[in-house]
Write a structure and sequence with these properties.
By secondary structure, this protein is of the alpha+beta class. It has helices at residues 2-9, 12-59, 74-85, 87-92, 122-128, 145-149, 182-271, 273-284, 287-290, 296-324, 334-349, 366-387, 426-435, 457-461; strands spanning 93-99, 105-108, 133-137, 154-162, 169-177, 353-359, 392-399, 402-409, 439-445, 448-455. The strands form 2 sheets. It has a 5-stranded antiparallel beta sheet, sandwiched between helices. The mean pLDDT is 77.
């Protein structure tokens, strides 16, 4: 089956050229043999018919009434001998025989054959049936020893002798002639017939080859284009599946982190504002406030403690809420978002942040703006907590849908492997960015830490 695979691997034009060439050669041989044989038979028959007509016109008047079917009398035989031995017939005819229907030779210029009976050949039967039979070949009949001894092809003609009133063949004239020039004529006819068949076959094959090669080039170009498209679609499908798996993992991790984040908020509320409020509630039930005999100074001092606890609780609640509630950023540009975060961070930490912003891209989706806000906010907080806020820098670029935001510092860095999967900071940022189809990268070391987020145009458009 290797040859079949190799054959199928060839182009359609190559397959047609090989298979069509073999079939065309076979067809040319078949048609050539048929046409040349037909032309050869036609030439031989026409030449034989012309000779037979001439011989018949000369010999027939010398023949007696053939109804007796007997041997020729001496006078008729002598007349035939003289006629066949002189003039044009004498030069052309090699032998002459007059046959009876039973295979008996009634007359021959070879006297030893007269009166002998031979098996009736197929050629003789066809002649007695009324057909002219002509052959150009080396004699092979039993009675043709003289002709066969010449060793060259002769024109053999069987001409029926017909009764004028009935049209019935009563005898058959058989004669061999030298037919000089007939061999050259046949060779020339064969050459011309083979040349015509070969030229016609070659022209037909070349025209078909041109059409097939043009069609094959078109098919190959379409096949190549289709293969490239299939490859592109397969790559896009694989990429889509990868993104889908990333999205699923990010969604799962985001759900888990969200639950952790909610627990963290609950713990902050429980350990902070709730404790202050519980403390104030307990002080409201103290004897200092309940007892009517308590001095005003002591009562006022107790109320001051209660007001202080409630104020601390409100302050902590506001701090927690400020981290949860986003400002109105849906209609803000990247420049406005980054500037707002940097100013808030500088005011809260009393540190300096260098800002570089290059924005000339289209309007971004709200989800991407929120992601940028949280990314810069959390990255600056981490840079201040873990890197000491040394040379903090924010670089933001938005160009034709390509978004790149980078937050860096020159602190001591940290070991990324020590970041716990349940951490709400960097892990939460990574999951948020992955869920939107972006990329997240951290580079840290002794020279500081750089955190980068990137969104490509297609990802942003989604």
């Amino acid at each position: 089956m290797n040859w079949l695979r190799r054959w199928n691997a060839r182009s359609l034009a190559s397959q047609f050229f090989i298979a069509g060439g073999l079939i065309s050669i076979a067809a040319m041989l078949v048609v050539g043999f048929f046409v040349s044989h037909l032309i050869e038979e036609t030439v031989i028959h026409n030449s034989g018919a012309a000779t037979a007509l001439y011989v018949d016109s000369v010999i027939a008047p010398l023949l007696p009434n053939m109804q007796t079917e007997s041997l020729l009398d001496d006078a008729s035989a002598q007349a035939l001998d003289e006629t066949l031995g002189q003039g044009a017939l004498g030069k052309r005819l090699v032998s002459f025989k007059l046959w009876r229907s039973d295979g008996t030779i009634l007359y021959s210029n070879e006297k030893e054959l007269v009166g002998k009976t031979f098996a009736v050949s197929d050629k003789l039967q066809r002649a007695f049936a009324g057909s002219l039979v002509a052959r150009y070949e080396i004699a092979s009949d039993p009675e043709s020893d003289k002709e066969r001894a010449l060793g060259k092809p002769l024109m053999e003609i069987y001409n029926p002798v017909l009764q004028p009133w009935s049209g019935q063949a009563v005898a058959v004239l058989e004669f061999y002639e030298t037919a000089e020039g007939l061999g050259d004529s046949l060779a020339h006819a064969r050459l011309r017939s083979w040349g015509a068949v070969a030229a016609l076959t070659a022209t037909f094959f070349l025209v078909l080859s041109v059409l097939v090669f043009r069609g094959s080039r078109t098919i190959e170009a379409q096949r190549k284009d289709l293969k490239e498209r299939v490859t592109e679609l397969s790559a896009l499908l694989a990429e889509n599946r990868g993104l889908q798996r990333r999205l699923q993992r990010a969604s799962q991790r985001a759900a888990a982190l969200n639950e952790t984040y909610l627990r963290s908020i609950g713990a902050d509320l429980h350990d902070g504002p709730a404790q202050h409020i519980a403390y104030a509630s307990l002080r409201l039930d103290s004897d200092v406030l309940i007892n009517a005999s308590t001095q005003p100074e002591a009562r006022e001092k107790e109320l001051a403690w209660i007001r202080s606890s409630l104020a601390e609780a409100m302050t902590e609640i506001r701090n927690i809420c400020s981290g949860l509630v986003l400002p109105q950023i849906e209609k803000s540009s990247i420049t406005e978002i980054v500037t707002r975060i940097v100013e808030a961070h500088q005011h809260k930490t009393e540190s300096h942040v260098e800002t570089v912003i290059d924005e000339d891209g289209p309007e971004l989706p709200p989800a991407v703006k929120i992601c940028i806000y949280r990314f810069v906010q959390e990255a600056l907080n981490n840079a201040y907590r873990h890197g000491g806020g040394v040379q903090q820098t924010v670089r933001a670029v938005s160009h034709k849908g390509h978004v790149r935001v980078e937050v860096s510092d020159r602190g001591d860095g940290f070991d990324p492997t020590e970041v716990r999967p349940t951490s709400l900071g960097l892990v939460g940022l990574r999951e948020r960015i992955d869920s939107l189809g972006g990329s997240f990268d951290i580079k840290t070391g002794e020279g500081g830490t750089t955190v980068t987020m990137i969104f490509e145009p297609m990802e942003v458009g989604e």
